[in-house]
Amino acid sequence: MRILIVGTGYVGTTTGLVFCEMGHKVTGLDLDENKIKALQAGKLHFYEPGLEELLSKHVAAQHIEFTKKTKKAVKENDIIFICVGTPQGADGSADLTYVKNVAHSIGKYMNKYKIIITKSTVPVGTAELVTKWIKEGQEEQIPYDVVSNPEFLREGSALRDALNPDRIVIGSTSETARTIIREMYRDFHCPIVETNPNASEMIKYAANSFLAMKISFINELARLCDGLNININDVSKGIGLDTRIGPQFLRAGMGYGGSCFPKDVNALIQIAKENGQPLSILEHVVKVNEEQTVFFIEKIKQNLGDDLLNKKIAVLGLSFKANTDDTRESPTLNLINQLLAEQAQVMVHDPVVKIAGGPSLVQLQSVEETVVGADALVIGTDWDEYKNLDWVRIKQLMNQPNLFDGRNMLDKRKIENLGFYYSGIANH
Prior knowledge:
Blueprint: E1 2-6, H1 10-21, E2 25-29, H2 33-40, H3 51-60, E3 64-67, H4 70-76, E4 79-82, H5 97-109, E5 114-118, H6 126-137, E6 144-148, H7 158-163, E7 168-171, H8 175-184, E8 192-195, H9 197-227, H10 232-240, H11 261-274, H12 280-304, E9 312-316, H13 331-341, E10 345-349, E11 361-363, H14 367-371, E12 376-379, H15 384-387, H16 391-397, E13 402-405, H17 412-417, E14 421-423
Parallel strand pairs: 1-2, 1-4, 2-3, 4-5, 5-6, 7-8, 9-10, 9-12, 10-11, 12-13, 13-14
């Protein structure tokens, strides 16, 4: 099949390359010339393990091409995926401006029957809006179908998730469209959920919100366990072995972040308010998440004192999770901003993320440089390379051997046996 991907960000690029693997011909459309040039050269404009190698492979084999030419791309492809951003608005709702612009362009340049698939995370009712917007853009009436087909990718493991999905959700009222999409996905071996577009759109929001709820639940429980001298990791393991609960998303830490959970939870809360049915559980999920870095700062102050003025604090990891360069809503950046507000001196390191520094914020090339003279070290992201550091050498370089593990990734006893003061998230 000839497939057009509109929007060559994280979701769009991953989706397009996976369809190349399945033998389809793919075109990536984007208005950002820098993105297009990089992708044409086989280079990703974001970090995702394994994806750049796949990009180089399919660019070289001419299975995928990238363009800025909207008219040509729409005319030449039969299936069009909308993978543009839906940023959070001021009230928490999703901004559909980019989706609307794409829909108008599709309507304007459509030359025959096409299936338009929304892959972007969008509010309930968006399929109906896209149908209307395409019609508004049409100069002559040409038939088309709009389908909801949400993505369930995890940053850092997007390629594995896309090639081996837990499920595929198809939201459509058209049997013609469903038949074609089943054929498009024929090489995927997983359950397929067929429903209407509204339910499909809700499934995406509900899934992300439920996972965010699990994270906030274990984080709030960790605060209680911290005061009761209980190891939250033991509790997570004990409840996670219950097949009704499962072990995923039960690791206590500094909170969730990234491009999906914060935005999607807030959007669902706003949808609920607009429909007169507030989701109080999710409202508390957000509150717990916002408070988690405050809780962690207090743990630092319990050791260093309430006055952090000119205290040197080394922070390892800037991305919201390992194996991605995404810093959107990163708990670590939130923590750093709070440390700077307390007038601490902050030195940071990350394997892939680069940030702009300042008088009190310095990024260094190596972990060793980062910890020199530090009064405390904070692990903000659980990159594998931080697990295997030479901790004896790290201790020698620090002014005070205080280690605060915001990811519970280190062995508390081993670290303490080396002479560190260690504090994690209820990691007793």
